[in-house]
Amino acid sequence: MNTQKKRMEWLWVLIVVIVTICIAIGLFFKSDTHAHDDEEKGHAHAEKDSKTADEEHDHKEGEAEHAEEAEESIHMTLAQATAQGVQFVPLEQGQINAAQRYPAKVVSNLDQQAHLSSGYAGRVEQVDVALGQRVKKGQILATIYAPELIEQQANLDIAVQNLALAKQDYLREKTLFDQGISARQDYLRANNAFKRAEIEVQALQSKFKALGLRAHAQGRYAITSPIEGVVSKKDLVVGEYVQMSDQLLTIDQTGRLWLEFVLPSQVAVRTQQKINFQLLQSDQTYQAVIKNILPEADATTGQLKVQAEILDQSVTLKPNVMANVWLASQTETVVVPRIAQSAVQQVEGETVVFVVQEQAGELAFKPQVVELGLRSSDEKWVEVKSGLTPNQRYVTQGSFVLKSELEKSEADHAH
């Protein structure tokens, strides 16, 4: 009976253990299921937040692009545009006389230039001007100490003293001759000596005056400007020794510059013909008139040298600046999409024209980057290679006003 009782006890223990294990397993799987659900909910929430953030970012980008587009456009009514002289037309096809480009160089007018050197060899004692300085006629530019001048000054002093002695001798002999004491030949000898001494002094003084020397210069020679102009070349410094043959200074008269270029001998040009040219670093067009054409072509290259006087005055036009001369072809004419030259502007280093769109009853003017090609010989038209579509409206007059308004609005936005 005790054995049966023990068996029953072990059976209950076994049942309790099995039930405990089952309960533990159930709790474990239930906890894992809740964790998985929570993880899925977290992922879903994160995805929702990410989607919302992306939508907000896209919305902000759209607003920024819209604001940027609005800033790049100038809005006006038709009446306002007319009042400010803004005119626009659609892009059209038209004829352009093809122009050939030739390299050229802006130079000083050699007929209005002074090349200065020293009248004596010597040491540079003083330099009174700087490169690019404007000087007046007769202004002292530099001072040279020349030992040769000391000898010439001494000769002049001796000649002056001899003149004084000769004059005294002449006056004494004249007085004696008038009193009948001195012989006529003694009077004539004294008179001739006085005249020779006077002529010698006058000759030395004229030489000093011609060289711009002062009577008591003490060996110093002043280089003065023979014309009014600007110092364009200066090749001397204090302390250096210069020779009479050295070109020390160049003075350019304040006048028009010249344009020099060469052409093939078969290109026909004539004197007094007006031509257009551009500097290499600028789109600005300038005018010149042909003044000189060499009578013969170069024996080696077969080219003609041409000189033209520049008609425009600009701070960008300086000697030795490179340029391009445009000469129209007499035979070649092409039909291309063309716009008025007055429409072209430079905005932030790019070539643009202002295009026109209607928005909510207003006119919106926006700069459009374009690629240009051929230019007409009269500089009124220019070919558009890309950037505009057929019949697209663009501003022909008043583009500079729009450029100014655009720059003003960008400056206000920056503040």
Features:
alpha+beta, six-stranded antiparallel barrel, 415 residues, 3 domains, Helix Hairpins, OB fold (Dihydrolipoamide Acetyltransferase, E2P), four-stranded antiparallel sheet, Elongation Factor Tu (Ef-tu), domain 3
Topology:
Elements: H1 2-72, E1 74-76, H2 78-83, E2 87-90, E3 92-107, E4 113-117, E5 122-127, E6 134-135, E7 140-145, H3 147-178, H4 184-210, E8 220-224, E9 229-234, E10 241-242, E11 247-253, E12 258-264, E13 274-279, E14 285-293, E15 303-310, E16 322-340, E17 345-347, E18 350-359, E19 362-369, E20 371-375, E21 381-386, E22 393-397, H5 399-414
Task: Describe this structure as you would to a colleague.
By secondary structure, the chain is of the alpha+beta class. The chain has three domains: 74-108 and 256-414, Elongation Factor Tu (Ef-tu), domain 3, CATH 2.40.30; 121-146 and 220-254, RNA polymerase II/Efflux pump adaptor protein, barrel-sandwich hybrid domain (OB fold (Dihydrolipoamide Acetyltransferase, E2P)), CATH 2.40.50.100; 148-218, Helix Hairpins (Orthogonal Bundle), CATH 1.10.287. It has helices at residues 2-72, 78-83, 147-178, 184-210, 399-414; strands at residues 74-76, 87-90, 92-107, 113-117, 122-127, 134-135, 140-145, 220-224, 229-234, 241-242, 247-253, 258-264, 274-279, 285-293, 303-310, 322-340, 345-347, 350-359, 362-369, 371-375, 381-386, 393-397. A six-stranded antiparallel beta barrel has the order 3-12-15-14-13-16. A hairpin with a 2-residue loop joins strand 17 (345-347) and strand 18. 16% of the residues are buried.
